[in-house]
């Protein structure tokens, strides 16, 4: 697997332009942290993005939990993404027939395709969902089409998750079938060992985002299950996603710095630095 290589090396060889960008940002900022900014107002979201911007590679949003979403939300996020050099991941988890997800991704109230570099989907509906989202991204005008990518939700961190076994294997198959749009996975580990049907290509280099990362807790009362940055990166996470561990900390900026440092040290150890 390519996870033993540095972000810099993967940035220079990866066939997907958005994956290259992700690795470049990580390398430039020495951060593999994605903050899950699960706050419910535009002001809180933008304040958090501005405060934490220097320490993160990606901001993950749940744009539909905002009580006051509007054009100012998007303009603000985009300006901060520029200012601090981070990418935007909307954790919308598309899960429907192709015709519906295309409308949810492009247009509508949320206009996700216009501002989210990264989106994700469940493959419960079958391969068609990946094809439909890829089609929408490809049909977008430059400069958007060039830097849009999908993460397949191959596993989940909640207790009793059904995203296992054949479901996870099919996630790998679909990722291999749509390499120009699928960046990789949201999963708890690298999926190189999963017995998929479609064979890997020589240059395969999936990007692994791992949610459920927390330094001070092992879970919540609703079934969330946590691992540490060390554990996640050791199991193959290229980007660690932390929500409450950062934004609900007494000092979110200090927490972000701490996750950045620990995530980076774990990465350096993995690549043999
Ligand atoms: P937390 O506060 O670090 O527990 O937030 C985790 C975030 O990651 C939250 O936005 C979830 O919706 C998201 N998440 C997750 O926790 N587990 C998963 O398997 C997936 C997403 Br996919």
Automatic annotation (TrEMBL):
Protein name stated in the entry: Orotidine 5'-phosphate decarboxylase
Organism whose genome encodes this protein: Penicillium alfredii
Reaction equation(s) it catalyzes: orotidine 5'-phosphate + H(+) = UMP + CO2
Keywords recorded for this protein, A-Z: Decarboxylase, Lyase, Pyrimidine biosynthesis
Pathway recorded for this protein: Pyrimidine metabolism; UMP biosynthesis via de novo pathway; UMP from orotate: step 2/2
Superkingdom of source: Eukaryota
Taxonomic classification: Eukaryota, Fungi, Dikarya, Ascomycota, Pezizomycotina
EC number: 4.1.1.23
GO CC annotation terms, alphabetical: cytosol
CDD domains documented for this protein: OMP_decarboxylase_like (cd04725)
Similarity comment text for this entry: Belongs to the OMP decarboxylase family.
Coiled coil: none
GO function term, MF aspect, one: orotidine-5'-phosphate decarboxylase activity
């Amino acid at each position: 697997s390519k996870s033993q290589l540095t972000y810099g090396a993967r940035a220079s060889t990866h066939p997907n332009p958005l994956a290259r960008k992700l690795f470049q940002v990580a390398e430039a900022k020495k951060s593999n942290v994605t903050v899950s900014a699960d706050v419910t107002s535009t002001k809180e979201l933008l304040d958090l993005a501005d405060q934490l911007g220097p320490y993160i590679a990606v901001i993950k949003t749940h744009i539909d939990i905002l009580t006051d979403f509007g054009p100012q939300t998007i303009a603000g996020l985009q300006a901060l993404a520029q200012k601090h050099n981070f990418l935007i991941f909307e954790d919308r988890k598309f899960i429907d027939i192709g015709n519906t997800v295309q409308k949810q991704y492009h247009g509508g109230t949320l206009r996700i395709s216009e501002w989210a570099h990264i989106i994700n989907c469940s493959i419960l509906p079958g391969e068609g969902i990946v094809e439909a989202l890829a089609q929408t991204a490809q049909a977008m005008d430059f400069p958007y089409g060039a830097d849009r990518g999908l993460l397949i939700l191959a596993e989940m961190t909640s207790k009793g998750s059904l995203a296992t076994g054949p479901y996870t294997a099919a996630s790998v198959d679909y990722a291999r079938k749509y390499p120009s749009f699928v960046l990789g996975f949201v999963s708890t580990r690298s999926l190189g060992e999963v017995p998929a049907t479609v064979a890997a290509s020589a240059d395969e280099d999936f990007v692994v985002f791992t949610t459920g990362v927390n330094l001070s807790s092992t879970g919540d009362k609703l079934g969330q299950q946590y691992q540490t940055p060390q554990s996640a990166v050791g199991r193959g996470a290229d980007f660690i996603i932390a929500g409450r561990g950062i934004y609900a900390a007494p000092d979110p900026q200090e927490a972000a710095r701490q996750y950045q440092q620990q995530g980076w040290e774990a990465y350096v150890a993995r690549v043999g630095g």
